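Take a look at my tokenised protein here and describe the backbone shape.
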Amino acid sequence: MLMGINKEEDEGGEKEMVREVFRGRIFSSSFERGDRVVIGAWDDSPLGGFTNIMWADPNGNRTLISPSEKHAEYVSSLYSFEEIRIVPVDVKIDGKSISVKADDFSVYMSWGFRFPLPFPRPLWFISSVENFFAKTLFGTRTHGIANNGSEEWYSIRSISWLKGASAIVSGDNLGAMSSRTESSCFGFSEPPIRPAAVSLSSIIEK
């Protein structure tokens, strides 16, 4: 976990900027029924290790499935949801697959070859050059402003395309894995258009 404090001068004197880093992976896919599902599996963060699910149904209703009130409060301050569900989240990662079970919601995703980006890039590069190519090639963004005014960068370490995905909600199968055709509208960024598993650091400055 990395946390730092930067000080900037403003009219009232010094303003402390707190930088928080979440390290882990984001798995995302759309489905034949029109649902969009994003799994955030964070190995290291100011909140400890945790996994949550962001789900947008075909009507555009956005749900956050979170393991605790603490995690839900933090994530919902950054992104938008109509519903927040606090339930135990059971996660199993086996090689190149992940399965998550949370109450009546279960999702499985598997991925293939990993395309690494091993060298670190400065934040100015992530917010300019990398952000341009992310929008152009993948339909996503690597930099923006969250709902609470925090500035956020996604420092990508690797990307893998999904080989398969399935999800069941309240006994209903969401259908075959598909590419994203509509916005998920959780926040300033979108998951890649093509279903993917991304290893990254999320850097948040408040």
Remarks:
- The radius of gyration is 17 Å.
- Residues 123-138 form the longest helix (16 residues).
- The chain is about 15% helix and 55% strand.
